[in-house]
Amino acid sequence: MSSTTGGHRRGKAVRDNVLTAALNELLNVGVDGVTVASVAEAAGVHVTSIYRRWRTREQLITDAVLSHLDPLSIDVPDTGSVRDDLIALLASLDESMSSPQNWALLRLATMPIEIDRLEEARRRITDERMTEVATILERGVARGEISPHVDHRLALEAMYGPVYARRLLTHEEVDEAYLAGLVDLFLDGIRAR
Amino acid sequence: MSSTTGGHRRGKAVRDNVLTAALNELLNVGVDGVTVASVAEAAGVHVTSIYRRWRTREQLITDAVLSHLDPLSIDVPDTGSVRDDLIALLASLDESMSSPQNWALLRLATMPIEIDRLEEARRRITDERMTEVATILERGVARGEISPHVDHRLALEAMYGPVYARRLLTHEEVDEAYLAGLVDLFLDGIRAR
User: Fold this and answer.
1) Average pLDDT, chain B
2) Residues B176/B181/B182/B186 CA torsion (nearest 10 deg)
3) Partners of residue A30 in chain B, C-beta under 8 Å
4) Where are the domains of chain B?
5) Considering the domain B82-188 in this protein, what is its CATH number?
6) Which positions ≥6 away from B99 have C-beta within 8 Å?
7) Does A151 reach chain B within 8 Å, measured CB to CB?
8) What is the pLDDT, as a whole number, of residue B1?
9) How far is CA B101 from the centre of its chain?
10) In CATH terms, is domain A3-67 a member of 3.60.20.10?
11) SS3 string of B133-182?
């Protein structure tokens, strides 16, 4: 084994070590509590050897989260009714936010930082969510429940936005009654008929 | 003047000084960049005399923002059409987020901190927004445009949620076409008719 390969292997061991320590810290103290110093201590490395690999605290956390990401896809419900499918989908979205990794990703997304891997993960997650919503809406169109002219992307944002707002801003409860109310509003609109 | 009053006046002068410095820092570097050390330096006081008055960085920022809050109420548009009123209202909401103080309040709300004054401000702002939405919807009901059975609170969240999600999470543009699309979805729903 050449010394370069040995150095590379040691480098990878340090890297894995630091990422695992960062993830543990994240699970213990939350995304706002993780410091480079506490990760360095837990990993048994010097702070400078972390800063050599990750320029900022946020980049370290992003890599730690993305190296151990929970499953991104949600089982698409198929109850035979668009209303019940959408309520179940919103409940799954909300449930997915209770995972510490997914929650950390969401909190990182609210921070004024630019991290390519984070942006890439955000796009991948949005694509997953788009596919799920599109599947449900297309089934609804095929059954004659739903207008064929709905913009799927707008539909995704209109339904998910209020759930994100409760979790991120108002911290109010997200229960089935709330989700059913949102879906009914979304299906029927508010016009007098 | 008794020495107690003098002490009280000096205390208030320090307090005002620190809050002004904190607000300036906030405007310069954003809510994530403000540190107690930089505020202390700008205010010409010792860090400990800040921590004597504010237990945490976040409490200091909250007090700084709330001591110089931009107007909370938005002029309620009255165009004669619910659709145009709602688009204008969402545009005002979005515009209000471009104020550094309002933006700081919003970012503070996403942080896992509990600050009574922040919670109180959030409630006051929600009440303002509720009154505005209710005024527009009630006019719409009176003109026969809108169903009288709409839950105003749910309507508020359904319309505002997607705008907050763009600003806080995806950082995508919020333009008039986007807002009009949301309002049309909200008015008409997605059911086949």
Assistant:
1) 89
2) 140
3) 112
4) 3-67, 82-188
5) 1.10.357.10
6) B70
7) yes
8) 46
9) 8
10) no
11) HHHHHHHHHHCCCECCCCCHHHHHHHHHHHHHHHHHHHCCCCCHHHHHHH
